[in-house]
Structures are given as structure tokens and as C-alpha cells.
Amino acid sequence: MNSTRLILSMDTGIDDALALAYLSTFNDIDVLGVIGTYGNVSVGTAVRNTAYVLGLLGMGDVPVLRGSNGPSWADWFIPDAGCAQFHGTDGLGGFGPGTDERPAATCHDGCPAIEAGGLTVSVGGYTVDDPHANPAYPVDSVRGRETDDRLSPGVRFIIDQVRRYGHDVTVVATGPLTDVDAAFTAAPDIAPLLRLVMMGGTLTQEGNCWDLTAETNIIQDPEAADRVFHSGADITMVGLDVTHQCLIGTAATRSWREAATSRPACASDETSLPRPETLRFLADIADFSIAANLRADARLFSSGMPLHDPLAVAVALDQMLVSCIDLPMKVETESGDFHGTRGRTIGDPEGLIDPQAPRVHVALHVDAARFVGEFTARIGGMLG
């Protein structure tokens, strides 16, 4: 049985917002808190987006905590332009409350001017001098970490709640695993107590990064992900193997708009239900992502956008949606001969010689029709 208590770690973009909307349709789920972390956007924008979406959903009383500023291997983080392509520069397709990304002047050659002073800068998981680094906005300088986010409020929250509830709370990470890794580093005792459902990685499918091997959440912080895989926590990996099978298209968003139109605003004003404009907002951001995915790969996404993060939260509530194999897993942290490709999630050969090596529940099959149908209906029916 999965616990109905959840802690969410989110780099709140469009599919994160849709995951929150899905959760809001359940009456028996206790969201203890949502941690806004870096990834699709900066940590500040993630926190702002999270609070904004929760407010629209009538969940404004859920605590929102600040998570990690950037990956464990870097001193500074800049969002990638590829994430802006799929989520908008504000993370919510231009329909959100705005962004706190720091504006700066563009360099003469179109590249960001970095005065790193020996600091390591991550641009969406790539070092700033990597040819794949593609910043979402120009940056004029790098000044180092704003705070020591090893013990950010979000990391402390994970530690405190897992110590309190153990396996009776599930942590759902739909962004990089930096927050979870930081919690293990600060409090190793919680690893055997922690139940984690993570959206990230891929085992049997192509990746969605430049090398078509790594997956976006993992490439942000491969070192953290590898440590989490080896932590001994109870981990379910919901990767591209299953999320790419769960697509929604414009027929779904059209039905949401129709539901919003048929429900006068005054009808929901008198109840705790979300207002029609909330449902239109969800249709707007989903349509943005549907169009972006179609432009990116018309072959894979002709039927719509993949429900990456909504599927992860759904699995946290009902693991019967997926079937898994239990496999010792590792994340490649370097590229090259005898290393592999940085960010790749792959079986760990250590498991061949050590039967006690930690196993990860890797989701390989999904009841896509059941999940997509339920997701679409729940969102469409949220106005009552």
C-alpha cells in the first residue's frame, strides 16, 4: 500500500503544474509540502510557479519550500533554452506569474559572458564551455552560490518528515535528484526509511538530451542521481520508457475548455472548487506543451504531449499502473572510453557479484489507456 502522505520536489514547469492539478482532484491525499527546485527554471521561479499553481487549485495552504539552487557538482546554475522551448521562459508557457530570472546584456557574439573566477557553471546540466550549453537567457557574470543550499529549507523538510513518518510518506521527485541526495548527505539515517518515486532516466528508450542517451532530469545532476540509486532507499524510477507512452492531445484540452465554459464563474465562487479560469489555465499550458512537443518530434508526439510528471505522481498513488523490474542501477558520471555517456541510467554490473546491491524498481510497462483516461477525466471534472 502506498501512503497518502506526499512530499513533492518539483522544478515547476508545465507537466509539474499538471501533476499538481491531478493531485488536487483527490480528497484523501495529504500533500505535506512542495519543494521548488532548479531544473526547468531557476529555483526562485520554481518556488513562485508552485505557489501560483497551488493557489489556483485551492491548495494555497500547502507549504512551499525553497530547494536546491543548482546541481551538486556546480557553483551556479543557468536554465537551458531547451527547457524554455517546452515550458516557456517562465516555466508555464507564458501563462504564469512571471519569472525572477536575472536579466543581463547580451554579448557581442551572442554567447553569455561568464566571469566565473574559477567557479563551475551548469547550463541545464552542461558546463558553460560545453558546445551543448544553450542558456535560456544571457548572463553577464557569475557570483557563486546565493546560499549554502546543501541544507535548504526543502532539504531540511525532507529529513524531518521522513524521520517522522518513514515509509508512511512518499517523496515524489519530478526534477533533478539534488534535493534528495542533499538530504541523504546531511542525514544518512533516513535513506532506509525513504520511499521515493522519481520521474527521470530511461533504460530501454532513447534519451531526450543532445546525445539521445541521457534524460533531462538526470543530466542536471548525474552524481546526485547515482548516489541516490546506491543509497538503499525504496526507489521507483518512472522514466521515458513509460512516460512516452502516456500522451494527451488537443481533444483533451478542448474538453477542458468546454467544461470551463459550461460552468459559470459564480457557481464555483461559492464552493471550494477551482474556478473556470483555472481549468482554462491548465488547457492553455497543456496546449503550449502539445505544440512544442509536436514541433520537436512529430513522429513521437503526433498524438500529444507526454505526461511525465503526472504519471510519476499517479504511480506514487497507485503502483499497479506500471510493472517494474528490480535492477541494480547506476548513472554514468563521465563520458568517454571505459566510462560510457554522462547521464545515462543503466544497470550496475556490481549487482552481478553482490546480491545485496541496492535494487531500483524500474517501470517498463504502463497501463497508458487507464492512466490517460483517468487523468483527462479528473482534470475535466475538477469544477464539479
Automatic annotation (TrEMBL):
It comes from Bifidobacterium merycicum. InterPro entries: Inosine/uridine_hydrolase_dom, IUNH, Ribo_hydro-like. One of its GO terms (molecular function) is uridine nucleosidase activity. Its EC number is 3.2.2.3. The keyword Hydrolase applies. It holds the Pfam family IU_nuc_hydro. PANTHER family: INOSINE-URIDINE PREFERRING NUCLEOSIDE HYDROLASE, URIDINE NUCLEOSIDASE. It comes from the Bacteria. Keywords: Glycosidase, Hydrolase. Residues 6-372 form the Inosine/uridine-preferring nucleoside hydrolase domain. GO terms for biological process: purine nucleoside catabolic process. This is Inosine-uridine preferring nucleoside hydrolase. GO terms for cellular component: cytosol.
